[in-house]
Write a structure and sequence with these properties.
The chain is α+β, with helices and mostly antiparallel strands and about 100 residues long. It contains four helices and six strands. The chain has a domain of about 60 residues: Alpha-Beta Plaits, CATH 3.30.70. It has a two-stranded antiparallel sheet. Strands 2-5 form a two-stranded antiparallel ribbon. It has a two-stranded antiparallel ribbon with strand order 3-4. It binds iron/sulfur cluster (SF4) (2 copies). The site of one iron/sulfur cluster has 13 residues, from α4.
Amino acid sequence: MSTHPRTPTVENEPLEDRLYTVKYDDPGESHLDVKVPDVCAQCETDDCVEVCPANVWREGDDGVPHIAYENCLECSSCRFACTYDNVVWTYPETGAGVTYKYG
Ligand code: SF4
Ligand code: SF4
């Protein structure tokens, strides 16, 4: 397969190394949730798990995802990716959440 000559070559560090460059202040309670757990239990797409760049959403045994909210990058991807509009998404309380060391 040929590559377009203007396609940039991007070599990223492993995800774990890149996540190491962000700092989190745990607000103590989750700013993320699901609206209706039964909807998740029947969901076959798991868009939240697929789209999250920080591995926050993880498949649960009962079909309802576990949410490791402490690692959230606040990118909003899960909020818009869920096919069933079943994600409760708010910002962490003021002063908590993610801080980026660069930029
Ligand atoms: S994509 Fe939406 S409905 Fe499916 S498991 Fe995730 S939050 Fe639940
Ligand atoms: S806002 Fe982004 S980083 Fe946070 S849980 Fe959703 S997809 Fe993952």
